[in-house]
């Protein structure tokens, strides 16, 4: 007998849980792609996406995943042979760097490790060393989903301004947008990227590249931009097909419209960020209590540097895998695997897991996941401290 029957909770950092309203909105025959509802809806989505990113500037929408936005953002800003600086705090930072390298861009990567944020002094040194101002863009991941480190993007802007460096500041917000506070214009971000399947609660398949006037001017100065990635017609379409450089992602648009209704119009960004912050603190409180005995440990020691959308944990091999397997077989919960922490063939790989708490997630879901982890620890005889669930409940109870 298994206790897993019932609604499954996919608690992995993307794809995230989709609201029933998003699913229902997509369940329809193909719509007219020339005019009418779909066209109006696409315009309204552009407006709401800008609210999510807190920008007055532009957004280009692509039929792609987050990896596609890595390429799209670079294709419009950096030519082959030009230089960029990547600030890596986990696997995803390196992923964006690899994309750039494959595009013929010269990449300098600063690796800040897996457990802490970037060091502004090292960024300053790298920019000061670039006396001829050849670095065209600085790439930073707001939340690295592998390590769950959250970087202070405004602090990077301050360093760039201090160094009086003209490089574009580009932020990967795939894991964080809609979950962690992000203010593109106020923080001086020139290009921001995200995708549909995390904080935006929609199936994977849509990628978004936000860009300001400074980035737009850089794009116009490039000798060539690939026809497909060119953000100009997508941001300034004269016909509907130009939004997507071809057939619209029809059903995704209906789904995203429903998701943005929920996020932007019903809850609002401030409340959504606050909800994610409180639920994250409930998870950390439980993990700290468990970790008081035994080997469970939050990957990011400093709470101020932790993502509000995903929490990476260390527990020692093979208990990470044992726990994940137990939860999916017995409790109807799928936890995230450790990513980029150890090589997949290595024994140590089994010593990590992640809890996603991004998007359509509320107190009962988070407390449910924590309760089933507690059951898993007990069932598997994994040593753990007491009082985790009480600590998490207390955080939820204190929420105004
Ligand atoms: C998920 C993610 C990506 C990649 O997105 P895919 O849709 O899997 O291609 C990139 N960056 C970050 C920070 C992510 O969390």
Automatic annotation (TrEMBL):
GO terms for molecular function: alanine-glyoxylate transaminase activity; L-serine-pyruvate transaminase activity. GO terms for biological process: glycine biosynthetic process, by transamination of glyoxylate. PANTHER family: ALANINE--GLYOXYLATE AMINOTRANSFERASE (PTHR21152:SF40), AMINOTRANSFERASE CLASS V (PTHR21152). Substrate binds at residue 354. The modification N6-(pyridoxal phosphate)lysine is found at residue 198. Belongs to the class-V pyridoxal-phosphate-dependent aminotransferase family. Residues 73-341 form the Aminotransferase class V domain. It comes from the Bacteria. InterPro entries: Aminotrans_V_dom (IPR000192), Aminotrans_V_PyrdxlP_BS (IPR020578), PyrdxlP-dep_Trfase (IPR015424), PyrdxlP-dep_Trfase_major (IPR015421), PyrdxlP-dep_Trfase_small (IPR015422), SP_NH2Trfase/AEP_transaminase (IPR024169). Keywords: Aminotransferase, Pyridoxal phosphate, Transferase. Its cofactor is pyridoxal 5'-phosphate. Pfam families: Aminotran_5. Gene3D superfamilies: Aspartate Aminotransferase, domain 1, Type I PLP-dependent aspartate aminotransferase-like (Major domain). This is Alanine--glyoxylate aminotransferase family protein.
């Amino acid at each position: 007998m298994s206790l897993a029957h019932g609604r499954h909770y996919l608690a992995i950092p993307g794809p995230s849980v989709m609201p029933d309203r998003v699913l229902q909105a997509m369940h329809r025959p193909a719509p007219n792609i020339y005019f009418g509802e779909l066209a109006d809806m696409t315009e309204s989505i552009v407006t709401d996406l800008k609210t999510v990113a807190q920008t007055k500037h532009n957004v280009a929408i692509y039929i792609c995943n987050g990896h596609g936005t890595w390429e799209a953002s670079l294709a419009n800003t950096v030519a082959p042979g030009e230089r960029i600086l990547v600030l890596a705090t986990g696997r995803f930072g390196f992923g964006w760097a690899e994309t750039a390298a494959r595009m013929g861009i010269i990449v300098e990567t600063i690796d800040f490790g897996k457990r802490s944020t970037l060091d502004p002094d090292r960024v300053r040194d790298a920019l000061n060393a670039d006396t001829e101002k050849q670095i065209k863009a600085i790439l930073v991941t707001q939340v690295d989903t592998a390590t769950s480190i959250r970087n202070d993007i405004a602090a990077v802007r301050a360093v760039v301004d201090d160094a009086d460096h003209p490089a574009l500041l580009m932020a990967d917000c795939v894991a964080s947008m809609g979950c962690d506070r992000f203010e593109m214009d106020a923080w001086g971000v020139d290009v921001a990227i995200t995708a549909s399947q995390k904080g935006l609660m929609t199936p994977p398949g849509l990628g978004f590249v936000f860009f300001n006037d400074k980035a737009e001017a850089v794009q116009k100065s490039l000798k060539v931009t690939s026809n497909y990635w060119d953000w100009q017609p997508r941001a300034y379409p004269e016909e509907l097909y130009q939004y997507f450089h071809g057939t619209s992602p029809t059903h995704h648009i209906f789904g995203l419209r429903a998701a943005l209704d929920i996020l932007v119009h019903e809850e609002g960004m401030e409340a959504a960020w606050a909800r994610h912050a409180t639920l994250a603190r409930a998870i950390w409180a439980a993990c700290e209590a468990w970790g008081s005995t035994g080997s469970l440990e939050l990957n990011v020691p400093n709470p101020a540097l932790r993502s509000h959308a995903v929490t990476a944990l260390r527990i020692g091999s093979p208990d990470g895998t044992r726990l994940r397997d137990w939860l999916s077989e017995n409790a109807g919960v799928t936890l995230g695997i450790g990513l980029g922490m150890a090589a997949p063939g290595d024994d140590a790989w089994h010593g990590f897991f992640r809890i996603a708490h991004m998007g359509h997630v509320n107190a009962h879901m988070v407390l449910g996941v924590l309760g089933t982890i507690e059951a898993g620890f007990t069932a598997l005889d994994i040593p753990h401290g007491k009082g985790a669930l009480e600590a998490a409940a207390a955080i939820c109870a204190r929420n105004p």
